[in-house]
Design goal:
With about 300 residues, the protein is mainly α. It is built from 13 helices and four strands. Bound molecules: heme C (HEC) (2 copies). Pfam families: Cytochrome_CBB3, FixP_N.
C-alpha cells in the first residue's frame, strides 16, 4: 500500500479535488450575468428560420441537483477510498468486504470439514452427504482440467479409473492433491534418432495388445530396456515414485495413437498438477481425496475380487 503522501497518491488526490472544485466554479460562472447579455426570459436576438432563442436560466431544481451530487462526491471521498492512498474513514475496501464474506462462510462450513477430516478416506468415500459436498468442490476446482466426471482429456489424466500415475492409495491421492505433482518425461528424440523413435514407439504401441511390425517391435524392446525401463520399469508397468505411467494398460494421458506416442517419446512431456494446499487447505483436500477415491471404487472392488479368486 502506498502512503497518502507519495507522489502518485498526491497526484490523484489533487486532480480529483481540482475537478470537483472546477465543477463548482463552472456552475457559478454559467450562472453569472455577463455584460451585454439579454435579461432573463428575454430573447437573445438570435433567430433561425423563425425560431428565436430565449435566455432562460437553468431551472433551480436542476442547479441544486448539481450541487447535491458535488456534496455527495465529497462525502463519499471522505468515507471511502478514492483519494490516492487515503483509505477512507470507514476503512472499507474490496478486500475486506470479500474477506468478511469468506470468513462468514468459513465459520459455517469449517466445523463440517474438520469433522470429515477425522474420518479415514475410504470411510469418507462411502459417506453420501460428504461425497455430495466433494462433488461440488470437485466441480469448482478440478473439473476444468480433469473433466466433470474426472475422466480427463488430452494432457490431463483420467482420475476416475484405477490406473494411477502417482499411486492410488489414499495417502498418495491426498499428497497428489495437497502438494501437486510434476511428471517429467525427457525428450528422447536426440538420443534415439528418427529410426530409434520409430522402433521404440512401435514397441510401446504393441504393449497394449495392438499389432505392430515384428522386427520394429523386437528392436524397440531392446531400446526400451536400455533407455526407458529405468523409469517405466522393465515390464513397462510404470513407477509411481516418479509418476512414470503404465504403458501397457491402454490408458493414455497424451493419446495412444502411434503419432501421439512418437511425439511423447521424441519431444517428452511435462504434466503439472497444481498444489492445492494454499488454495483449499488440508481439510478440503482430505474430502477431495475421498471423492477422487470414490470415483474408482467399483474398479477397486473388482480388482480385489479378482485377487481373491486367484
Ligand atoms: C490446471 C489443471 C489442473 C487442475 C485445476 C487440477 N489438476 Fe489434478 N492433475 C493435473 C495434471 C496435468 C496432472 C498430471 C500431473 C503429471 O503429469 O505428473 C494431475 C494429476 C492429478 C492426480 C494424480 C493422478 C494419478 O494418476 O496419480 C490427482 C489425484 C489429481 N490430479 C486430482 C486433482 C484434484 C482433486 C483437483 C482439484 C482440487 C485437481 N487435480 C485439479 C492438472 C490439474
Ligand atoms: C526420467 C524418467 C523417464 C524416462 C527415462 C522415460 N520416461 Fe516416459 N514418461 C516419464 C514420465 C514421468 C511420464 C509422464 C509425463 C507427465 O506426467 O507429463 C512419461 C510419459 C510417457 C509417455 C506418455 C504416456 C501417456 O499416458 O500418454 C510415453 C508414451 C512414454 N513416457 C514413453 C517412454 C519411452 C518409450 C521412453 C524411452 C525412450 C521413456 N518414456 C523414457 C518418465 C520417463
Amino acid at each position: 500500500m502506498s502512503s497518502f503522501w507519495s507522489f502518485w497518491s498526491l497526484w490523484i488526490t489533487i486532480i480529483a479535488l481540482a475537478n470537483i472544485f472546477a465543477c463548482v466554479w463552472l456552475i457559478r460562472w454559467t450562472e453569472k450575468k455577463r455584460p451585454g447579455e439579454a435579461a432573463s426570459h428575454e430573447t437573445t436576438g438570435h433567430e433561425w428560420d423563425g425560431l428565436q432563442e430565449y435566455n432562460n436560466p437553468m431551472p433551480r431544481w436542476w442547479l441544486w441537483l448539481f450541487y447535491i451530487t458535488i456534496v455527495f462526491g465529497l462525502i463519499y471521498l471522505v468515507l471511502y477510498p478514492g483519494l490516492g492512498g487515503f483509505k477512507g474513514v470507514l476503512g472499507w475496501s474490496q478486500y475486506t468486504a470479500w474477506q468478511e464474506e469468506v470468513d462468514t462462510v468459513e465459520e459455517r462450513v469449517a466445523p463440517l470439514f474438520a469433522q470429515y477430516a477425522e474420518m479415514s478416506i475410504p470411510d469418507l468415500a462411502a459417506h453420501d452427504e460428504a461425497m455430495q459436498t466433494g462433488r461440488r468442490l470437485f466441480g469448482n476446482n478440478c473439473a476444468v482440467c480433469h473433466g466433470a466426471d474426472g475422466g480427463g482429456r488430452i494432457g490431463f489424466p483420467n482420475i476416475a479409473n484405477n490406473d494411477w500415475q502417482w499411486g492410488g492409495e489414499p495417502e498418495q491421492i491426498y499428497k497428489s492433491i495437497l502438494d501437486g505433482r510434476a511428471g517429467v518425461m525427457p525428450g528422447m528424440g536426440r538420443a534415439l534418432g528418427e529410426q530409434g523413435v520409430t522402433e521404440v514407439s512401435a514397441y510401446v504401441f504393441s504393449l497394449s495388445g495392438r499389432g505392430a511390425p515384428e522386427d520394429l517391435v523386437t528392436r524397440g524392446r531392446e531400446r526400451f530396456q536400455a533407455l526407458c525401463a529405468s523409469c517405466h520399469g522393465s515390464d513397462a508397468r510404470g513407477n509411481t515414485a516418479m509418476g512414470a505411467p503404465n504403458l501397457t494398460d491402454g490408458n493414455w494421458t497424451y493419446g495412444g495413437s502411434l503419432e501421439a506416442i512418437r511425439t511423447s517419446v521424441r519431444d517428452g512431456r511435462r504434466g503439472r498438477m497444481p498444489a492445492q494446499k494454499d488454495l483449499l487447505g488440508e481439510d478440503r483436500v482430505h474430502l477431495l481425496a475421498a471423492y477422487v477415491y470414490s470415483l474408482s471404487m467399483d474398479e477397486r472392488e473388482n480388482a480385489a475380487a479378482d485377487n481373491a479368486d486367484e
